[in-house]
Every structure is written in C-alpha cells, then in structure tokens.
Specification:
This protein is of the alpha/beta class. 45% of the residues lie in helices and 17% in strands. The protein has 2 domains: 222 residues, Glycogen Phosphorylase B (Rossmann fold); 186 residues, Glycogen Phosphorylase B (Rossmann fold, 3-Layer(aba) Sandwich).
C-alpha cells in the first residue's frame, strides 16, 4: 500500500516557490501517494493569477500530482494586517480541509514559512494521528527581528512561543543548514528530531543554458565578468559591491560587475553607480527562471552577498546551490555556513561581507588565475553539487525521513 503524504504549503506552482511541483513529483516517483494542499496562486503580487478564482475547493492534477487549493485572503503588500490575514486565512482553510476533506494521511509534510502553516500541521497531526515532518526554510522569530518586520518584543515573544509549540509536536524537523540545526538544539529541541537536508537548485533552468549564446544585455567578453543574480534589497547590502566596483575601476583591474534582478534598492544603487561614474557596472532587469541559466553560464564568476548579520551566518542563500550547479567559480561574501559550504566544495573563494576591499581582492585573485584553473574550480563545485546537493540526493533524503516517521509511528501504535 502506498504511503499517503499530505504536503502542506501555502505557495505552490505556478507561484515561484522552492519545494513545489518538482518536489511533489519526485516524491510521487518514489512511491508516495501525494496530495498537495495549498492556496490559490497570488504570490508575489497579491493578485489571484489568471485562470483561477477563489472558491471553497479547487482540485487539479498536475504532472500526476493531486493538488487541492483552498481559499485564502490574497495579499502580499506592505500592510501587516493584510499579510497576517493572508497567513491566517490559509491556515484555517487548510486545517478545515485536512480534517474534513482529505483522506487520512500516513504522514504530513509542512513547509515554513509562514509559521501559521506549522500550527495548522500540528492540529492535523494531533487530530488525524499522522506523524509530522516540518521543513524550516526561514528561522522565526529571528528573521522577523532581523528584517524589522516585527519590532514589538511582545509579538516576537508570541511568535517564539508558537515556534516552540510546533517544534514540540513535530516528529522530525528538517533544516537547510548546520547553523539552523545548532540553533534549534540550543533552544532545547532534541537532537534526534533535527536533521539537515540541503536545498537544491532548479536544475532544468540551469541546464537550459547549454546553447552557449550570450544572453541579452550581458557585457561582451573581454573584461572579467562577475554576476550577482537575485533580489536587491536591504539584506543584500549591495553598496559594498558598488564600492568594490569603484576600487576595481580605480585599479584598472579589467573586471565588470553585472547585477541581475529587481528589488527595493535597485533604483538607489543605480543612482549611486551614476554618481560614482562607474562604467564597470551593468544593471539588468529580472528574467524568468527558465532564462537565468544562460546568464549564469555567460559569467566568469558568480557573486553571493548578504550583510553582516548573525542570522545570515547560519543560513545558506538558495543562489549558492544554483551557482555551484552552473559550474562557475563562486565568490561567497557571506560568513558562516555558506562560506563553509563553498570552501568545502573547492568551487570558489570566500570574501568578507560588507567589505569592499575583500570583495575586490577576491575578484582580482580569480581574474588573475589561468582560465584552466578557473574551469577546474567550477567543475569541482559542480561535482560537489551533484554528490551532496542535487535534487536526487535531497529528495532521496526526504523520502527516507518521511518513511522512517511512518514506520516509527506504526511501531509505537503496534
């Protein structure tokens, strides 16, 4: 008899999400009978996608995966009220459906953020008597405090208490880095509950770059081209990268920085680049994931940068895996677990975050390497990705964890 998996996630394809259809499809291939419970697609704009309208239940089958959508209040604006209502409405709908509509699962998988999904999953675990695997991608309340999303210590304490409740009742907790694991152990979560399963990259999008054509807008070959791809917000602290470009231009280093993506800081960074009269920085607008691989393949090196913050020392930005999978040298300007991962892979170099001189020096060091050595570095990163971070490796690990929870519950109930 197939293991019935209830996969609980607020965001799912066609929304941009990490553990979405690919994850569900791969688990189904490994013998799980998967039902996804999710909301009506509205992220990131807060508007329901064309072709959908909110109703009590909508069922569809995508690539053999059963997807059940339940109602929520669509909102992703800056309003705290709207965001909270968005989270709570999905949690209530998912709980009601899980209790009244879903076939009793053998095991429940829940994806955080947001925390409210975890609370719903705990209710279903207790009332449907199914073990719970809880996947933490964002450490709350730490992220809320670090980003300033919540400033009230009372509210942060309330969130922390809800987290402890979910941790208590989850049968297994999966985290994306050793740092997350250490933090949970420090907070009293039993070591037997917590395991690290690294995130993976969108391998199909990266593989689509095989044509080798230069992507639109990318600087022509000649200078050493360093690409930063992704969101440009406060957390990325990209002023340090602009300052590194200024140093490189003053040194005549022959390097060109390309910043690909959108975000709240883009226009300000553009203005600052213009004020500094930098001609070695190019801004490119966001492109669909299916086209990102071509930009990664065109670069000579790929840059990760986050501001200096204790929270970021225990996280691994998702672009790390994508960069390694692209087979290009990585410049990791993030301290902690992300830097350790790149060093362990021998697929790149490490620089200090928010240190323009360190970033510029890392770029110069890579640019001065023989091209064959850089290619070898990229290949080492790719091999490390394939052996430890790939979709196949990660989903196999999840399948083992889910099955182990089912068997452990069965032994306790016997």
């Amino acid at each position: 008899m197939a293991t019935r998996l209830l996969l609980l996630t607020q965001w799912f394809d066609p929304e941009p999400t990490f553990k979405g259809l690919l994850f569900a499809r791969e688990l189904a291939r490994r013998g799980f009978e998967v039902e996804v419970v999710t909301g009506f697609p509205n992220y990131p704009g807060g508007k329901v996608y064309p072709g959908y309208r909110i109703r009590w239940i909508q069922r569809e089958t995508i690539d053999g995966v059963r997807v059940t959508r339940v109602p929520l209040y669509p909102s992703h604006d800056r309003s705290a009220f709207g965001r909270v209502l968005n989270y709570l409405s999905f949690a209530v709908s998912a709980t009601l459906y899980g209790l009244l509509g879903a076939v009793r699962p053998s095991v429940i998988y829940a994806y955080q953020p947001p925390l409210t999904v975890g609370v719903a999953a705990v209710i279903l675990r207790l009332l449907r008597r199914a073990p719970l695997v809880y996947d933490i991608q964002d450490m709350w309340p730490d992220t809320l405090r670090s980003t300033g999303m919540i400033r009230s210590e009372w509210l942060l304490g309330l969130v922390g208490g809800a987290c402890r409740l979910v941790y208590r009742f989850a049968d297994r907790i999966v985290v994306l880095s050793p740092g997350f694991q250490r933090l949970l152990l420090e907070r009293g979560v039993p070591a037997s509950k917590v395991e690290v399963i690294y995130n993976w990259a969108d391998e199909s999008a990266i593989a689509s770059a095989a044509s080798g054509e230069e992507p639109p807008g990318f600087p022509p070959p000649g200078p050493f081209r360093v690409l930063f791809a992704g969101n440009m917000g406060k957390a990325q602290a990209l002023d340090a990268v602009i300052d590194a470009a200024r140093i490189l231009q003053e040194q005549g280093a022959g390097a060109h920085l390309v910043l690909l993506g959108g975000g709240l800081e883009v226009e300000r960074l553009k203005r600052r680049t213009s004020e500094l009269r930098l001609d070695n920085v190019t801004f490119l607008p966001p492109v669909p994931m299916a086209r990102v691989g071509a930009y990664l393949a065109a670069a000579d090196a790929l840059l990760v940068h986050l501001r200096r913050d204790p929270l970021f020392e225990i996280t691994i930005p998702s672009k790390t895996q994508a960069y390694l999978a692209a087979g290009r040298p990585v410049i990791m300007a993030v301290s902690g677990d992300a830097a350790s991962l790149v060093s362990e892979s021998c697929g790149g170099v490490v620089a200090s975050p928010e240190d323009a001189g360190s970033i510029a020096a890392a770029i110069v060091d890579l640019a001065s390497m023989p091209e064959d050595d850089r290619r070898a570095m990229g290949r080492r990163g790719l091999e490390h990705y394939r052996s430890r971070l790939s979709v196949a490796v990660g989903v196999d690990h999840f399948a083992s964890t889910l099955s182990d929870c089912v068997h452990s519950r069965g032994n306790r109930d016997a």
